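Hi there,

I know you've been waiting on this one. I reran it after we fixed the sequence typo, so this is the corrected version. Both the input and the resulting structure follow.
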Amino acid sequence: MILPEFSHEWKTGLSLAWSGYIAVLSVWIVMQKRAPVSTMSWILSLALLPFVGFVIYYFLGPQRLKKQRLRRLRSRAIEQAPGDIARLRDASKHAPPTLRQLAALGTAACGLPVSTATSVELLSGGARTFDAIFDCIRQARDHVHLEYYIFEPDNIGTQLRDLLIERAREGVTVRLLLDALGSKRVGRKFMAPMREVGIHVALFHDTRIGRRLRPVTNYRTHRKIVVCDGRIGFTGGVNITDEEDARTRPDAYHDVHLKIAGSAVRWLQTTFIEDWTYATGETLRHVHRAIDSMFPRVDAEDGVGDIPVQIVTSGPDSAVEAIHRVQVDAIHAAKHRAWLTTPYFVPTEPALMALTSAALRGVDVRLLVPRRSDSLIVSAAARSYYDELIAAGVKIWEYKARMLHSKTLVVDDNCAMIGTANFDNRSFRLNFEVSAVIYGPTLTGALVTQFQTDLRNASPVRANRHQTFPRRLGEATARLFSPLL
């Protein structure tokens, strides 16, 4: 094959065009003021794709989104919980300083205060989670709000749709917010029966071309929220899909979820309503008449509990990275234990430093990840961190029974976290996420037991693990893309 010869003028022109492309692209990316490692990764990656890189960065590159916090809504939520506030004021006097500081960080980072719950229940497995959610929806009398990243029109998705239709016919107001990309298989035909009975259905960040001047395809709501009558709420890792239901699929994901009752649910409610108004363009005035039912008054006799709970949210609408900060700060504060379960482990530098520093100072740091993830590049990137983690004293297990999808963190005996955020750059900085932080021993015991149970189906990762050169090279290469994953 004879390659064409370019004249000197052509070579000079191409060189100047490529140099100009790199210069403009670099200025564009640098002006985003992101982390230096992430900035350099984008520049170096797209430099290898002349001109096509503009298109890639336009669609997938980082950008700041404007998503209004509804101050009036948050003020109303606080006004409706005088008993809750009084109980927390008394309890905070006896709380350890580290927990008070962690709670203050969460409040400052995302604007949501510590609240209380009358009960919190760990739900292990999709089947148990679905049963609890369905029962709660059947008992709802005023409204049901649902927000999901993945909602599949399969067996469990159809069952939930039909239940929502039944409740809507009985006068219950239903709002369903679905991520347009994660729930892309839910089409108009599937949703038509819901809309016919008055169910409000909306898509978060519609992926259709022309919906926005600059697409936001790379920014998803990864949240899973269910709120019934403002009194019972759910969040965690379980999506609406048969892949989470062992009754339908023996290879279903292993996952956990959380059921909350009491005043703390109002902050899941607030998060949902803010997402709803952002996605639909509705103003608070459209839902004003229903505010009292959305935020039932919580006094000493109704809803005030003894379990301190803080809902923490984060997303690309804020540079604070609230969930990232809270998890890293909690690990730094650990004195005895920091046990982390995550399906996608691609830590930021601060998160990696927190884990290794805790282990080096003698804290029992454990990491549970899936042996085989549904993303090969993420699995390879995760394994590239094993050697330095193990060298620092972190104990690592790979869950081998099924795909592990749980997202939990236990710190000592007084702090437990469960939510939608993975331990990776995408969850910390790109997706809209929500986590529940439960202070005190109520949930830590259940999560410790769950962690120990999961270890029965996991294999420890040994130091000096044998690897072929191609595998080591693959893991090291995948790590280069960590800031982009």
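Quick highlight: The longest helix spans residues 8-30.

Best,
R. S.
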